[in-house]
Amino acid sequence: SAVISQKPSRDICQRGTSLTIQCQVDSQVTMMFWYRQQPGQSLTLIATANQGSEATYESGFVIDKFPISRPNLTFSTLTVSNMSPEDSSIYLCSVELGQGFGNTEAFFGQGTRLTVV
Amino acid sequence: SQQGEEDPQALSIQEGENATMNCSYKTSINNLQWYRQNSGRGLVHLILIRSNEREKHSGRLRVTLDTSKKSSSLLITASRAADTASYFCATVRMGTGTASKLTFGTGTRLQVTL
Which of A33, B1, B78, B94 is most buried (most C-beta within 10 Å)? Predict the structure, then answer.
């Protein structure tokens, strides 16, 4: 199994500012995933982060808005830039052990509940 | 949209009763997974069923998969108050290459009352 520490657990931010969310895993993983969960909604994948390469973003998400770092095999950050109230969501990081082919369970951090005012 | 649909959106039952949640999806899949989320926190994996499997059990959980109908169901037997949570199905598409992507359903909010 994998234990994921995600912080901050929650934050209230002013519009126009940026917030960086950290995700630390207790084992080395090839890929890390960042999701957004808008209030009362399901999870939507923002991007996949591989160590040593640029993150791969899903349709509707861009690097300028959600820059991601992946400096090593156990750590990643997601920044929500130039925030607006529409960015108020829960942001979750996730990993799969092994090669990440979707053949095993995914492990999730406890999420960061972001409120933009 | 590739997102799956779940029904019901919300389900309220009494402790001891069984809870059944259904998930439908749109594409051919490699596997389907069920997750639980408590109060907007992180998700916890419950069970994974592969596309060549039809039924799987884990404790009080029973999952079925019908690939011809592109649907799955999650049954929780003898429910407890601690089962109160949101439940999501998630699919992994066939041929996703090197990056597996979980596509989540809309979720079912289960409330188990004493």
Answer: A33
Residue in chain A nearest B107 by alpha carbon? A42
| pLDDT tens per residue, range B32-50 | 999 999 987 889 999 999 9
What region, left, alpha or beta, does residue B37 occupy, with left being phi > 0 and alpha being psi -120 to 50 degrees?
beta
pLDDT tens digit sequence for B53-100: 999 999 999 999 999 999 999 999 999 999 999 999 999 876 555 456
Inter-chain contact A42–B88, Cβ cutoff 8 Å? yes
CATH no. of B5-113: 2.60.40.10
CA distance A91 to B40: 10
Taking an 8 Å cut-off on Cβ atoms, the answer to whether B101 and A102 are in contact is: yes
